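Course assignment 3, question 2. Fill in each field.
Student: A.L.
Task: Predict the tertiary structure for the chain below.
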Amino acid sequence: MPLSRLTLSRVAIAWAVFLWTVALVLPQLGPQTQAHSAVKAIVAFVFALLLIGTPIALITYFNRAWRSVATVPNRAAYVTWLSLETVAGAAVVGFLAYGAIAFAVARLR
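Answer field:
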């Protein structure tokens, strides 16, 4: 299954590399500065890939984690911690979706 290689740590590293690269490639904000359209397209494409890959990696991670609840020795602590992780993961996906939609709406105006 090719999606099993898409792990949460790899997606986090991809986000870090993407944000660092974008900070270096895109010009600083100013009245005369404008990024090349090819650079904008590449950044938008990679952002869309990461926006799709993040929920997939989170779902895979939480699916495996919740399936192992029966095998852990301290089930109450594990379920409590995993519940907090799940809420935080859902919040991250929600913030990413909100940011992408807000950016797209602002660009269309």
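Instructor remarks: The chain has a mean pLDDT of 87. The radius of gyration is 18 Å.
Grade: pending
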